[in-house]
Amino acid sequence: MFKQLFKIFFLLCVLCVYSSSQAALAAEDESQDSLQNSVTEPIDTKINDLITLPLHLKINLRQRQVTVYQGKNLIKSYPVAVGRRGWETPVGNFRVRDMLVNPTWIHPKTGKAIPGGDAKNPLGNYWIGFWTNGKDWVGFHGTPNPESVGTAASHGCIRMYNQDIEELFKLVNIGTPVTVER
Questions:
Q1: What distance in Å separates the CA atoms of residue 45 and residue 151, rounded to the nearest whole number?
Q2: CB 58 within 8 A of CB 44
Q3: What does the mean pLDDT of the chain come to?
Q4: Quick check: is 141 catalytic?
Q5: Is the pLDDT assigned to residue 76 strictly greater than 50?
Q6: With contact defined as beta carbons under 8 Å apart, do 149 and 78 qualify?
Q7: What is the signed CA dihedral for 29, 32, 34, 35, rounded to 10 degrees?
Q8: Residue 109 pLDDT
Q9: Which residues on neighbouring strands pair with residue 98, listed in sequence order?
Q10: Is the pLDDT of residue 55 over 50?
Q11: Sequence-distant (≥ 6) Cβ neighbours of residue 21 within 8 angstroms
Q12: Predicted TM-score of the model (pTM)
């Protein structure tokens, strides 16, 4: 019983000290604000200016294009190559799950690996993975074959010009939403 009363008394004391210090700080801030506001112009801010809206990516398979949005605002669009017949790019809502620089490519049929940085590596220098079935992956990557961008040529991945994937890699993070539509 005595311990419980002591705890309550202690919490009340802490609360009183905290609230009196907060009141003193608020009064000090108010007096400084009135001085500062008397010599500056009022600032017109919108709530959207104060909040950084999240990025999301929308892939349109028919248009062979990925568009970057921040909130509802279109930031930039890039041409892409998509999965060819029999290796179609999966449709749906996903999130970026993996991001690599100089990724190793593993052939989906043979399992042969080509290390990152190798001229024969079809992934280029950047990988942004957004879909997996636990074995195979689909994601954005560069290409040593820029003429394939704008076509249906990949094993389901989204091929991009090397300079475009580098730019996109700097914009997105793990967890960025990715929508794939027909």
A1: 45
A2: no
A3: 82
A4: yes
A5: yes
A6: no
A7: -170
A8: 85
A9: 129
A10: yes
A11: none
A12: 0.72
CA-CA distance, 75 to 55, in Å (whole number)?
A: 9
With 0-12 CB in 10 A as exposed, 13-18 as middle and 19+ as buried, what is 21? exposed
Catalytic residue status for 157: yes
pLDDT at 30: 47
Measured between alpha carbons, how far is 33 from 48 in angstroms, rounded to an integer? 24
Among candidate residues 172, 174, 155, the one with its CA nearest the CA of residue 164 = 172
* pLDDT average, residue stretch 24-28: 44
Per the CB < 8 A criterion, the answer to whether 64 and 82 are in contact is yes
Give me the DSSP letters along 5-51. HHHHHHHHHHHHHHHHHHHHHHHHHHHHHHHHHHHS------HHHHS
Residue in 16, 56, 107, 157 annotated catalytic: 157
Looking at 50-106, which runs of residues are DSSP E strands? Answer: 55-60, 65-70, 73-79, 82-83, 92-95, 98-101, 105-106
pLDDT of residue 19: 42
Cα 46 to the center of its chain, rounded Å: 24
Q: Which one of 13, 16, 107, 141 is the catalytic residue?
A: 141
What CA–CA distance (Å, rounded) separates 25 from 29?
Answer: 6
Q: Identify the pLDDT of residue 47.
A: 55
